[in-house]
Design a protein that fits this description.
Layout: H1 14-48, H2 52-59, E1 84-85, E2 92-93, H3 101-110, H4 114-119
Antiparallel strand pairs: 1-2
């Protein structure tokens, strides 16, 4: 037997009361759909003369197997040659991707943009 739940609606404001009504209507609709589905399932079971084992087999049907896709090995790319070097020659950069820290430092010190750095002959490798 279900427990009786007491709800003091007199203490709820209009917004809260509307929320309770909406929740109750949603629950009623869910229960009605459940009952309708249950009735339809019973009709189908009777029509096709299914037993519990048949129903269990339907519920635990094997999952669809996806076609295997061929996954090849990734080809290792050769490192790009250095296009730019630091003035002391200890660092090198290909010019692709995000500019390294040492390039940013040089750009700040000499008030250059990265594009201007790339065109400056002093830093070509």
């Amino acid at each position: 037997m279900a427990k009786k739940m007491a709800l003091d609606t007199k203490r709820l404001d209009t917004k809260q009361l509307n929320a309770v009504i909406k929740d109750a209507q949603s629950e009623i609709a869910k229960r009605e759909r459940f009952e309708q589905a249950k009735t339809e399932i019973h009709k189908i079971i009777g029509k096709y003369k299914l037993d519990a084992d048949d129903i269990k087999a339907l519920l635990v049907a094997p999952k669809k197997v996806k076609a295997k896709t061929r996954v090849g090995k990734k080809v290792a790319k050769a490192p790009l040659p250095a296009m730019f070097k630091s003035p002391d020659g200890t660092h090198a950069w290909s010019g692709r991707g995000r500019s390294p820290f040492w390039v940013n430092e040089i750009c700040e010190q000499e008030n250059l943009t990265t594009a201007a750095f790339k065109t400056d002959a002093r830093y070509k490798a």
